[in-house]
Amino acid sequence: MKDEIIAHLNDPGQLEKLYRSNKVPFKRAFSTLYPELKGNTLADFWNERLNYESDELAWGTGRELAFVIIASLVAGLIAKLPAFLNIEQEFFYSRNIGFIIFPVLSAYFAWKNNLATSKIASIAGLTLVGLLFINFLPDVKKSDTLLLSCIHLPLFLWSILSFAFVGETRNNDEKRLSYLRYNGDLVVMTTLILIAGGIMTGVTIGLFGLIGLKIEKFYFENVVVFGLPAAPIVGTYLTQTNPQLVGKVSPVLAKLFSPLVLVMLVIYLIAIIYSGKDPYNDREFLLMFNGLLVGVMAIIFFSVAETSMTTKSRPEVWVLFLLSIVTVLVNGIALSAILFRISTWGITPNRAAILGGNILILLNLLLVTVQLFKVISKKTTINEVGKAIASYLPIYCLWTVIVTFLFPYLFGFK
């Protein structure tokens, strides 16, 4: 996006077209470029325009609103399929939970980015392959590979959504980083929507209860089932049309939680020593340990994505650097525990999946840590850290494909 802005800086018409095609990435890219462009008449105009905050909420065009409403209804109808078709709920939701949300979000970005027909066909084809594959897998009870496929399939659909989000741009790393920012913004916005919806649900059920009407079952089966999948769809729409809603909240959260997580993680590692717990012989503890690792890694990546577009202050970079080092240590402990369990009790689908995931995370964290050290040493910029994250995302996508589609056959549906 930065290169495109610079290329069209003296062409107001093309700059306007670029802005309208993707407002959020445009605003973020322009904010980082403006210090270098200050003094340019057109750049000064765009700076004033982009930083003017209206008191009113922008609702986009009528077509966008219609698309969001239809997409929300479609997602709700998909969620209601077990009731319509008399399908066992556990079977349906365990395998198809990702298809309630991700395909409609992919359709939204494919439409918004005016993707070529060939790319839309690829996105639709990959989604259909995932749908057919997961639903035709044998219904084997207590199958680890089936469970792994069901867990990793939403990640595969998340990867497909990233293709729709990135679109036809040349600078894929920048757009992938924007995709991570979008996910962080979406979590914030969806959480707010769900909190508001939860309050409304409680008030509505309470009011009807006061007049003797018990509407809980009807409300949850016909209102909540449509409202839950609509929340991320509406949240996506709001973050794309009104970036100012969470544009200031997300960086604040990143700055606030990074040092808090660093302190918590250090205290937690010390507490493990005194607790007597260890991931080498306690399977449940190892799973929780890996969950902690993924969560902390997500915070690092989200913080880097936000920092690369907002500020480059050294204290924040130091916090991220120290957090990365501690997370590498946590990853090393988890990885050694997995290797210990494999050497002692042999390979299983779960151990293979966790081993592969930990190796990928460790390599990515090492790349990020090295880049953060270079930033501290003033040998590079924070943008290079973002590129180290963004360029690695396709590797995670490839791993989800392997676990989802190949593991059931590699391990004989065990």
TrEMBL record:
Transmembrane segments: 65-85, 92-111, 117-134, 146-166, 186-211, 218-240, 252-273, 285-305, 317-340, 352-373, 393-411
Keyword Membrane: yes
Transferase in keyword set: no
Source organism, top-level taxon: Bacteria
Keywords: Membrane, Transmembrane, Transmembrane helix
Name of this protein: DUF4153 domain-containing protein
